[in-house]
Each structure stands twice: as C-alpha cells, then as structure tokens.
Amino acid sequence: MLRVNYFASVCSISLRASRVAEATARPRGFSSSVARNKQSLVILGSGWGGYEVLRGVDKKRWDVTMLSASGYFNFTPLLAGCAVGTLEFRCAVEPVRRYTPQVTAYQAWCDSIDFKQKTLQCMPATPPLTFEKAVAPIEEITPTGGLSHFAGTGTGFTQRYDKLVIAVGAYAQTFNVPGVKAHAHFLKDVRDARRIRTRILECFEQANQPTLSDVERRNLLNFCIVGGGPTGVEFAAELHDLLHSDIRRHYPSLAAMAKINLYDVAPNILGTFDRSLASYAEQSFRRDGISIRTNHHVEKVEKGKMFVKEQGEVAFGLLVWSTGLAPNPLITSISQLAKDEKTSSLLTDDNLNVITKDGGMPDPDVWAIGDAAVMQDQRLPATAQVANQKAKYIVKKLNKIAKGQNSTKPFEFHNQGSLAYVGDWKAIYDRSGAENVKTKESGRLAWLLWRSAYFTQTLSLRNKILVPTYW
Amino acid sequence: MLRVNYFASVCSISLRASRVAEATARPRGFSSSVARNKQSLVILGSGWGGYEVLRGVDKKRWDVTMLSASGYFNFTPLLAGCAVGTLEFRCAVEPVRRYTPQVTAYQAWCDSIDFKQKTLQCMPATPPLTFEKAVAPIEEITPTGGLSHFAGTGTGFTQRYDKLVIAVGAYAQTFNVPGVKAHAHFLKDVRDARRIRTRILECFEQANQPTLSDVERRNLLNFCIVGGGPTGVEFAAELHDLLHSDIRRHYPSLAAMAKINLYDVAPNILGTFDRSLASYAEQSFRRDGISIRTNHHVEKVEKGKMFVKEQGEVAFGLLVWSTGLAPNPLITSISQLAKDEKTSSLLTDDNLNVITKDGGMPDPDVWAIGDAAVMQDQRLPATAQVANQKAKYIVKKLNKIAKGQNSTKPFEFHNQGSLAYVGDWKAIYDRSGAENVKTKESGRLAWLLWRSAYFTQTLSLRNKILVPTYW
C-alpha cells in the first residue's frame, strides 16, 4: 500500500524530482533500511503549530520533512522584549536544525500543493546562487523588512508526502492602507524585532545630532503603534519601560521629547480581553503618558509620516503595525479545499482534517492547524495557544497512526486564559473564558503569571537557562 | 587663556556652528557652571585607542566629546568567535553611550581638521533624515558590508576642541585587487562578524537544497580566507571548530564536503610570530585538514569565485579578507602634518603628539594613537596592545594636565607578547619579544593564557559575567 503510493507519485512528477529523491535520500542514507518502512510526514511551517508537531512527533516511526522559509521557530511572546533590547534575539528563536539529521529540513517555501498526487511544489528560500538568475520576489523587498522574502534560487523542487500538516500561518494585515509595507514595521519575526531595535536606537542617535531643531527631534522621537491588540499593547509597554530606564539614563534631554501613541480603529484597545481588564490596561497606559488614540483611522503612510483621518499629518520616527492577520499566499493558491468565508483560512473538521470543496469530504492525510486554519464547527481565536494545542493533538494522532491504532477522538480546546504585559512590571491575565475558573488578575501578580507561563512553555532547556540571565 | 581660545575658534566658524554650540550645550545644561571651567577634549574614534581614553580620562576635569561613526567599541579578539556563533554579538561590543550624559557623544564622522582654528568638520553617520537628500557615501555600499557607511544626513556640523586625540584607526587593505570590497567580507567590526555568521549558515542551507549537484555543493562549502595574520588564522581556527561540532552534528553529509583554505602571498603564515610557533600553527592546521596556500596571489574576485595566479579560478561560498591595514580617509585628508612614508600614518614624537610638516614641531594639543599613528623614533606594530598602552599613557597625561601638573615623560611600550588561537582549544603564545621573559607556549596552556588574557582586558563587568555563559 505504502509502496504503491510512493511510486504513483514519483512516476507522475518531472525529471527534476528524481534528482530530488536522490538528493534527499543521501543525507539519510545511513538509515535507509529503516526509512523504507516509514511513511513520509511533511510539515509546512515552523511556527507555534508546525514546530510543536516537529518537536513532538515520533521521529523513529515517521520519516519527517520540515519545510520552513525562515528555518526557525519564533517564540512570539518574547519578540516585543527583543525589539526593545531586554532580551537577546537568540532567546526568542529555536532553529529547526536542532532536529536534523533525525529529520530532513529545507529552508524553502511551498508554492502549491497537489492533493491528488500528494506532491508539493517548493522553492528554496535561500538567496539565489551565483549562476542563477533571481526570480521576482513574492512581495517587494521593503526597507522595513515587511513581508518580503528572498527571491528564491529560481530552481524549484518537488516534495512528496504520505501525510501533510499545513501550518504556514498568516501574513500581517494592512487593510490595503497605502505605504504600510514600505514604511511600517511588523512584529511577527525575530528579524522584525531586530530591525525595530536598530531603528529605535537610530532615532535617538539621529535626534542627538547637533544640527537638528527641537521640532525635528520631537518628530523623530514620536513612536506610533497601529493596532491595539496584545502585540501592539505589549510593544507599547516594553517601549515605555525602555524610554524610562536606559534611554532616560543615557539620553536624558531627548527622553523627555519622546512620545508613544497607540492607534486603533475600535473604540477600545484589547477588544478580545474582559472589559474590566482592558480598562485597567488603558488606565495604566494613560498614567504612563502613552496616548491611546482609539476610533482613529490611518489612511496613508509615507516615509516618516502618516495621514490620520482624525488628526491629519502625523510625523513619526518609528511606526509599528499590528492590525491582525491576512491570508497566507499558499492558502490563497489552494482552490480544491473548503475555506472560511470571513478569514479565507482552510476549514477543518473536528479531527483537524481539511475538507474538499467538492463533496465536503475530509482528506484523511492532510491536517491544517494554526492561523491558516479554522474549525468549521468551533470558531477559536487565532492565537499561539490554540495553534499549540492543535499541534499537540496532531502529534498524539500521528503517533497512534504510526502504531496502527485508531484515532478519531475530536480536538477539544482547553482555554488557559489570555495574558498581556502592560508595562512597569505589571500584566493583565484574563481567565474569564478559561475552563472551570473565573479569575481575572491585574498588576504584579498577573505579571508573575505572565512571565512564569511563558517560561514553562516550549523553550528548550538552553533557553530556559539563558533567558533569566538577560533580565 | 582658555576663554581666548574658545572665542577665537567660535568667531572663525560659520553660522551653523553657533547652532551646534546651542545644541551641544543643552544636554549638559545641568552642569554648565562647572563646564565653563573645563577644557574641551575631543576623542576621534572608539576603538582600542579612543575607547580606552574615553574610559580612563577624568570626566570631572575634562569636557569630553566622543565622535564615533559606529557608536561602540569592538572587542576585536572576540570577533572571530562571534562570526562562527560561539559568542553573542553583544559580548564583543561596548557602546560609548555607557558614558553619556557624563560625556557628549555623536555618531558622526570627522571629515577634516583645522589645526589652526582647532575645529573639526563632522558629518552625522546616522541615516539621512526624511527631509534630507542623501549625499554620496565615501565608499560604495557593498553586499558584504565592506568599508561602506551611511551616506550621512547631508548636514554637517563643526566641533571645536582644546585638546584632540586622533584614534580613527585604519581601513582594511585590499591592495587594489578588483572585486574585494564588493564580494569579500572583512572582519574588523561586529557587523562584519554578523554578516559572516549569516553567510556561513546560508552556505549550508543553500547547499542543503535538493536541487544542487555535489559540485555546486562543494563550491558553496569552499571557505577561503586571504591573509595569514592573526585575524585570518583565528577565523580559520574558529571556523574549523564550528565545522567539526555543530555543523557536523546537524549537516553530517554536507560537513564532509566543506573545506577551509588559508591564502597568503608570503612563504609563511603568522609572519610576526616566532618561527617555531608559526610552524606549530601550520602543522596543527594541516592535521586539521585546513589547506595552507602560502606563496599564492589572488588577482581578482567576482561573485562566488576568485582568480588565483597559481591555481586559476577558485569557487567559494564565503571569502574573508584580512591582509592588513590601509590608511583612514581622514588621515589621507590631512596635509599639514608629518606622515610615515611606508604606512601613511601620522608621525608622532615620543609624547605621542603629532608633528607639523613645516618646521617639524609637535602640536602640544593634538595626540595620535592606534593604527592611524606611528612614533617617529620607535616603530611598534599596529596592534590592539600598542593602541591600548598608548591610550593609557594619554589618559595619565590628560589627567595630569587637568591638574596643572607637568607631564613630558615619553611613552614606553611594555611588550606583553602575542597570542593567537589555532583551533581545537589550542593557542600559541609568543613572549619571545616580551620584556625580561623568553617564553614561547603552544597548545592547551597557551589557550588558557589566550582566554584568560582577554577576559581580564577591557570588558566591563556585565560582559565578564556574560561571556562564559555562552561558551
């Protein structure tokens, strides 16, 4: 049965694919006798969903291939801390290479999926080779990093699978506001965090030049954040802490000119949190001098300035944009599967299998988790917590399948509450949606919960040891 | 006397300068009554010479201004370790901001010096502001970083001094071999180290793509180092360690294809070391499989390949270039002072004061140290050790001058020997030139000396604590 699948797919793909098979076989040559008995599991994406599957799946029973464009997992809750320099960048990433050569890993994009042939068309995400002509990048390369990625080497390859986990995540939403990709920073990846950190210090060094007027200085030190969700709020909080510690110490006269502004189109920030906790955060921010500009609409962004419907032109030194999720291009390219009308994510059944558009049948060999997926009967938020729990569910299922055991128990979400850091060593912790408990915490206790919750998460031992030394 | 100097210089400079004076006065406003009694000391450069002067000088008695284009000190012996990922980048730098607001610091280049008027023409080294047009960069911006720097904001400023320390260092020597700046990496700055680290991993990820032939893989994994001095040798050693630890663990089949080549035009590597120690290093390298290609001449570099007189075309994935020093553009721009014929560095007397070209008189207010300077009666090597000792001498002198004490004792160099890491936890330690001792050490003992010598150096407490945790 397995053998038939294998040849069926190999025969249908191009000449290049046989070279692929040759190339991929070589690194695993030492265990080729075992490999022949293992089914091929391909994981697309190394975020909260994909990395957890990679981490947990039984690699002795599965022939695992990880396709990740970045090559690492971002521990996203620490990115805001990295962006202001509290944490080292290394603390916030885990390379997928940690699991090679036990698994095969390619730094590559998946451009399209053939669910019938069970093949993936892939493109290297490494820079073009000397002898290759660069193809056009999917997204334009922008000064702030944006959604751009390497053009790819121009030579694609085909990857087959027996089982497939789609965990490619989502892109940053811009609502088509002109200039956002070119002039704003997102905060989804450790490289974004690095660019933001560089830019913050650059703003102060620019403002420190003796040739500037005070108006020019205030413009450079105007820090704007668009999007009042947890990411925007936590970054505002971390930035506030930075301005009131290291920056005030080393640039005392400039620190007084700096200003943080948090924009949202909604009437409140932290819309997904319990109202009383969101109010606590707003009060805390106002006391700290952070301007909360709710009910504000950014209409256009240019270099160093944006146009706000309610304010007119607003100059900034740094603009961080975090207004939710946009569909991943791979998901957009898929036409054979059922999708959610609102988010355009892949619909799954309660076993997290994707569903064919014609006939509405689940594909037993393909699962979709994380921000690229939504269950048709249970709408869960697009959070790390949901992605992580779905991944753990898939791991259990895969390990049962490998042992030939039945596994049709549906996925159940266990809400563990939401946490957000609001600055000055204070956090809010919303467990009002959590199971069995009705707790809301704010202030120092919630901060301790926030830190300890993240510390006991996925981070490996190396990072668990390292993180506190940077505090 | 002081007041006269001050006004003499202020009156002779342009209108922009008064705005400068206004701007620089503001951050130090809180101590303006004290500041009026202090002489102005300007330090150009934050390397081994300049940073040590900044660190040691009595900031209560001197009104100190640091002009540094990077804004930080590079702990150069750790750069090779950073470039292969053994050390965090943060370990190898010390920001000059550590000393603000006690001192004034500008991230800026000095373009020219008027020794008569005692003024410096400076250009911000931060990126151009939104409303400014970028001027042409001094060096072209290259993919590998090279010698390029920010174009500057286009608006220069004038800085006056009572006393001046020129410690701008030197640039990387390319001997005008075409293509070096565009396609090779230098290893003089932590940003170079970061680019090299990124490139090493990129080479392995590129070579790991399933579409490549083994010839293409071997080309990508051919690592070339041009220059057999301590920097080239230490980088080769660190790279060898990396290939035989993490790389072998995670890319086992690719690690076997990787190759390290060390080129030099001279018949031996480590020409400045004792012959028996250099031979020990060569033997150690040969045993490790590092190709030592002495008596080889690189004639041209292109993207991914170079042309060697003795070999023809040589493909590489990474080329690190470290063939000594070239004059700093600021030093080249100075026409009024005596210079060394061979190196074009500034000549100084044994008090380290620069010497006028006409008349050969020392300028009592200007000192030159580090790689940009050479003493006319005592030719010392252009090393960190010499720069550091000269800086300590200047600090003592400045602190005496501030107290009105006489200080004409000439500089004396105390040779503490040379250390170089040669891989596999082994180092060589040459004290054959050192005072009173005739010791040469090689192997493990020398390695311990190498590490401990650097640990007890300039690194601040924070870094002393942090460095071992990364080991």
Fill in the keyword field for this structure.
homodimer; 471 residues; alpha/beta; FAD/NAD(P)-binding domain; 2 domains; eight-stranded mixed sheet; four-stranded parallel sheet; 16 helices; disordered N terminus; NDH-2 (chains A, B)
Largest sheet of chain A: 8 strands, mixed
Order of neighbouring strands in the sheet with most strands of chain A:
7-6-5-2-1-8-20-19
Q: How is the quaternary structure best described?
A: homodimer
Number of helices, where a helix is a run of at least 4 consecutive DSSP H or I residues of chain A: 16
Number of strands of chain A: 24
Q: Tell me the CATH architecture of the largest domain in chain A.
A: 3-Layer(bba) Sandwich
Share of residues in strands of chain A: 15-25%
Number of domains of chain A: 2
Structure write-up:
Chains A, B: GO terms for molecular function: NADH dehydrogenase activity. Chains A, B: Keywords: FAD, Flavoprotein, NAD, Oxidoreductase. Chains A, B: Belongs to the NADH dehydrogenase family. Chains A, B: Pfam families: NDH2_C, Pyr_redox_2. The structure is a homodimer. With about 475 residues, the first copy, chain A, is an alpha/beta fold. Chain A folds into two domains: about 1-170 and about 325-400, FAD/NAD(P)-binding domain; about 180-325 and about 420-470, 3-Layer(bba) Sandwich (FAD/NAD(P)-binding domain), CATH 3.50.50.100. Chain A is about 30% helix and about 25% strand. Chain A is built from 16 helices and 24 strands. Chain A has helices at about 1-10, 15-25, 30-35, 50-55, 80-85, 180-185, 190-205, 215-220, 230-245, 245-250, 250-255, 275-285, 330-335, 385-400, 445-455, 460-470; strands at about 40-45, 60-70, 70-75, 95, 105-115, 120-125, 155-160, 165, 170, 220-225, 260-265, 290-295, 300, 305-310, 310-315, 320, 325, 345-350, 355, 360-370, 375, 420-425, 425-430, 440-445. In chain A, the strands form seven sheets. Chain A has an eight-stranded mixed sheet, sandwiched between helices. In chain A, strands 12-11-10-16 form a four-stranded parallel sheet. Chain A has a three-stranded antiparallel sheet with strand order 13-14-15. Chain A is globular, with a radius of gyration of 23 Å. At the A-B interface, α2, β5, α7 and α11 of A face α2, α7 and α11 of B.
